[in-house]
From TrEMBL:
Record Pfam families: Patatin (PF01734)
Location of the active site: S234 (nucleophile), D376 (proton acceptor)
Claim: Methyltransferase is one of the keywords in the record: no
Keywords tagged on the record: Hydrolase, Lipid degradation, Lipid metabolism
Chain positions of motif GXSXG: 232-236
Organism of provenance: Rhodosorus marinus
Entry GO MF terms: phospholipase activity
Source taxonomy: Eukaryota, Rhodophyta, Stylonematophyceae, Stylonematales, Stylonemataceae
Residues in PNPLA domain copies: 196-389
UniProt protein name: PNPLA domain-containing protein
Lipid metabolism listed as a keyword: yes
GO annotation, cellular component aspect: membrane
Motif window: DGA/G: 376-378
Gene Ontology biological process terms, A to Z: fatty acid metabolic process; lipid catabolic process
Length: 398
């Protein structure tokens, strides 16, 4: 089996035939990993550094396969991003950078790019984007170095504006994770940022829909095509994400919300006993099922692969041992040197973030995410206007 694949992979001249065969064996096994559970069982039986080495020393299809495998690992288990950065003496960053610059130069020179090189661009850029949101000091330092590399930024921008849609999507996502936020007017004549802040308030959201429909009628455009930054709390978070990230019309959002009211806010005969046992009158599982159905497995930052995506954040209340603080789930990061006063998460699943933001006390139970309890964002900012303005200033400093 290995021999039949060998001719499809190009190796570095520094590799012996035996070393090449060993790398290919490791790579072919790694490509079979499809689930987080399979990834857990794959390591520590196998060496992650060898997969990273394959991305460094192989060319063509071999390199593309290694990068695709690593990009898959980074999605399946975000905690592995740090391991990827540190494996093989930290070679992955230079490998991706050299590959992207080299392929772009050949492409610009009129060279024909085989399918494997396109795969290398897509997987390498996607992996770069995932590594840029690695938590901890290792991820922060690596992100700073890459974000300040003008040549790499130039190449990624070029791919983002290119004709190959798969490469463009991966590049737009990578720019977002690196905090490369370039403002472009949403409408003709626009001279400044347009920010939409949507309050919480349960069934009062129906009033919000009427106001948004009026704005849409006046402007003749969908809401997501009008605003640069959209921020919401609680029920406003569901509206903000539905309009901004899911790009639903106001009418579609209203239909979804009326369904939520009918299914979720319905007390049964066990409501009072349920309140005693769980501190919540309503069934949180029903809310979660509707949100999961609407959002799927979408992750906030992944939405930036779409062209023209507005910056969207939703607010939750982070419950600590001594204080309650504001937390933002968002589909953007900040430019190097710019910070927000609010802690935040760019790679949370969309449905989980909305569930956390709408976990109103006595209505629904709190939501546990990454070891931290989150409750309704209305506790800290029912009207998130100040949060939205601060985030806009952090996204587009100066």
């Amino acid at each position: 089996t290995i021999a039949s694949h060998t001719r499809s992979f190009t190796k570095s001249s520094s590799l012996t035939d035996e070393e090449e065969t060993q790398l290919l064996e490791e790579l072919l096994l790694a490509k079979e990993v499809r689930t987080p559970e399979a990834l857990e069982s794959f390591f520590p039986k196998h060496d992650l550094a060898r997969i990273v080495k394959a991305a460094r020393v192989l060319d063509g299809r071999g390199r593309a396969s290694a990068l695709t495998t690593l990009a898959n690992f980074a999605v399946l288990k975000p905690d592995y991003r740090r391991n990827i950065l540190l494996a093989d003496h930290g070679s992955i960053t230079e490998s991706i950078s050299r590959m992207l610059v080299g392929i772009e130069a050949a492409w610009s020179g009129g060279a024909y790019l085989p399918v494997c090189e396109i795969e290398g661009i897509v997987s390498g850029t996607h992996l770069l984007g995932s590594l840029a949101i690695t938590r901890g000091e290792v991820g922060t330092e690596w992100r700073r170095r890459i974000a300040q590399n003008k040549e790499v930024r130039r190449v990624i921008r070029k791919f983002a504006n290119g004709q190959n849609e798969s490469a463009a999507r991966a590049a737009r996502r990578a720019l977002a994770t690196l905090g490369v936020n370039e403002w472009k007017p949403k409408v003709a004549g626009q001279t400044g940022l347009r920010i939409l802040s949507i309050d919480g308030g349960g069934t009062r959201a129906l009033l919000t829909f009427e106001m948004l429909k009026h704005v849409k009628k006046l402007m003749g455009k969908d809401i997501h095509d009008m605003f640069d930054v959209i921020c919401g709390t609680s029920t406003g978070a569901i509206i903000a994400a539905s309009i901004g990230i899911r790009r639903k019309s106001v009418e579609e959002c209203e239909k979804l919300y009326r369904e939520l009211i009918g299914k979720v806010f319905c007390k049964g005969p066990m409501a009072t006993p349920k309140m005693v046992l769980t501190r919540a009158y309503y069934d949180s599982k029903i809310l979660e099922s509707v949100l999961q159905r609407e959002c799927g497995k979408g992750v906030f930052i992944d939405s930036t692969a779409e062209e023209g995506m507005p910056k969207v954040c939703v607010v939750s209340s982070k419950l600590g041992t001594s204080e309650v603080t504001c937390h933002t789930f968002r589909n953007y990061t900040y430019p190097v040197g710019s910070e927000s006063r609010f802690a935040g998460t760019p790679d949370a699943q969309l449905w989980e973030a909305l569930r956390a933001s709408s976990a109103a006390p006595t209505f629904f139970t709190e939501k546990l995410l990454n070891g931290t309890l989150h409750a309704d964002g209305a506790i800290v900012a029912n009207n998130p206007t100040a949060v939205a303005i601060h985030e806009a200033q952090s996204i587009f400093p100066g």
